[in-house]
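Session log. Operator J.P. requested a structure for one protein chain; no other inputs attached. Running the standard single-chain path with token output.
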Amino acid sequence: MNNNHIHPIFDRLLQRSDKEQLLQQKALVLWMTGLSGSGKSTIAQALERQLYAQGYLTQVLDGDNLRTGINANLGFSEADRTENIRRIGEIAKLFLHCGIITICTFVSPTIAIREQAKSIIGNDDFIEVYVNAPLEVCEARDVKGLYKKARAGIIKDFTGIDSPFEPPAAPDIVVKTAEMSIEAAVMAIYEAILPRIKG
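Structure written below.
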């Protein structure tokens, strides 16, 4: 495809620093990865409320929410998962450039797929949070009934059952939700990012 007719105007728009000054905060992207049922969405919701209570503007990008909207045309093949994360990375980058603290909750099961997101968002702004819970704990919780369906063969390519999950090698933050409360996990993340987001 010929892109000669595309003329970006990024250089003529208000910059991220202008928006961060308006909001009195520094933006970043928190990328929460972990198995289904590990607690990503629950932590994100509680963290968003904690940040809001302290006067910070946030946006949560949640896997299920995006798959019912902008990514409704994607399945769970390797190619579709890659495209899902590519789109999410681009959306997160838009929020980042609006000065907004963006919380992403996606299984994003492979190191390669998370590296793809990091390359789109930018290494300096990408904070990887490993929501670490053992498979047996996540399966016992089975909040959405997905593990039961995967074990029955109703759902194919389900991460942790018949599709691999590659834990982060060196995440920025780790919360072990089998060993700590949601409140403790939220405070651990909040205290870790606070020096980064203060305006």
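Operator note: DSSP finds eight helices and five strands in the chain.
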